[in-house]
Amino acid sequence: xxxxxxxxxxxxxxxxxxxxxxxxxxxxxxxxxxxxxxxxxxxxxxxxxxxxxxxxxxxxxxxxxx
Length: 66
Prior knowledge:
- The protein is of the alpha+beta class.
- 36% of the residues lie in helices and 23% in strands.
- A hairpin with a 2-residue loop joins strand 1 and strand 2.
- The longest helix is centred in the N-terminal third of the chain and has 20 residues, at 3-22.
């Protein structure tokens, strides 16, 4: 096989691999029961140390609710 033919085959192989990866469906999301384990923590919180104000926290859901 000629060198240019091998180069062309390598390019086609890389393109085919890239297309196959692009068409792979994303992995399934996390199960519903797992998603909600820490819902009690979501919200705005006043942080205290020894009963004295020490700061504020905001806990939000991220990563599509997971």
